Amino acid sequence: MPVHIARPSTTLAAHKITTGEIADDIRTHHPDHPRLGAILRVLGNCGVQTRYFTQPLNSPTINGTASIGERAPRAFADGLDMAETAARSVLQRHGLGPGDITGLITTHATSWAVPNLDIHLVARLGLRATVRRTALTTAACAGGAHALIRAVEQALLHPGSRILVVAAEVLSTAYNHTDSKIEHMIYKALFGDSAAATIVSSDPLGPGLTIDSPAGLLEYVFPDSLEFYAGRIDSHGLHFDSTKAAMGGARHVMPAVVEWLAGRPVTVPVIHPGSRPIIMDTAAALGLTEDDARHSLDTLAEEGNLGGVSVLRVLERTHGRPPADGEQALIVAYGPGFSVSAIHATWTD
């Protein structure tokens, strides 16, 4: 029995921040940085023009000196609010009520909270007490695709399912002036805050992606890559670290993705907009062009790297200029590990 992924709904954070504003903030806080000129040049070419933060740039939990004890609760509260808004929006979009939802899968990696996003959303949305729940808390940028994989598996196992998938990330919580390496400066400009939600169901809820079997699902961890990307917590907050090897991450794992595809075509790429090189390396491995990857590039330029929310946002943009019925799509996202999560699907009207 086929499984369907409906059109997502995205909620962007309240405060629009330009790359110029971030460059000015870095100049102010790091005037004597030995690589300041290089940092500002990289920021100008990072592919991101604007992004949205849940708090103003000059707030204590963004460019200030708030502690982890202040940053983490603020990030979770802001992420939860966006998650609720996105979830309510997608339910309304598809004419569903809380009682129609049989499963809930959440992904959120940018704060720590127990109970996590799933339990809070059960309460806020009024979902069934018996709703099947999965809370992903460390999938990070791969979270949206990973949550979709878990939802598709659940729908294949339980015909008649309607599974609410919700991703929320407050990546601005990692904006921290105690981090002064060039990669940390780039992340200050790269990341944005948002939430998105969609419905994975046994019955179609309008045009969207259809998966026929588990053969359309891939999870892959690149060997010996534990240190490519990593989160770090100290008294100053949550930090995001990476190594030089991580810069070629997509090139490392796309051969495994192409092998798994085994000749199946892809004309509709839903690529995680982690950076312009990540997008273009993925597109090139699939034999696709910059125009083919436009929805990922536009998301990056206008909203930044949204972490686990990203592929849901790109999929929503894809619905804005829908492919032809029967076209073959690939959702692909990368996360710490170094890992890749991918879904091969058919666009159906």
Protein described:
This protein is α+β, with helices and mostly antiparallel strands and 349 residues long. The chain folds into two domains: 3-206, Thiolase/Chalcone synthase (Peroxisomal Thiolase, Chain A, domain 1), CATH 3.40.47.10; 209-348, Peroxisomal Thiolase, Chain A, domain 1 (3-Layer(aba) Sandwich), CATH 3.40.47.10. It is 35% helix and 25% strand. The protein has ten helices and 15 strands. Helix 1 packs antiparallel against helix 2 (36-44) and helix 3 crosses helix 4 (117-125). The longest helix is centred in the first third of the chain and has 26 residues, at 68-93. It is globular. The mean pLDDT is 97.
Q: Which structural class do the helices and strands define?
A: alpha+beta
The first-level CATH class name of the largest domain? Alpha Beta
Cα gyration radius (Å):
19 Å
* Count of alpha/pi helices: 10
How many discrete domains? Answer: 2
Brief sketch in words of this structure:
β11 (229-234) and β12 form a beta hairpin. The protein is of the alpha+beta class.
Layout of secondary structure:
Elements: E1 3-5, E2 9-12, E3 15-18, H1 19-29, H2 36-44, E4 50-53, H3 68-93, E5 103-107, H4 117-125, E6 132-136, H5 143-157, E7 162-170, H6 182-190, E8 193-201, E9 208-211, E10 217-221, E11 229-234, E12 237-242, H7 249-261, E13 268-271, H8 276-285, H9 294-303, H10 310-320, E14 328-335, E15 339-348
Parallel strand pairs: 5-6, 5-7, 13-14
Antiparallel strand pairs: 1-8, 1-9, 2-8, 3-4, 7-8, 9-15, 10-15, 11-12, 14-15
Helix pairs in contact: 1-2, 3-4, 7-8
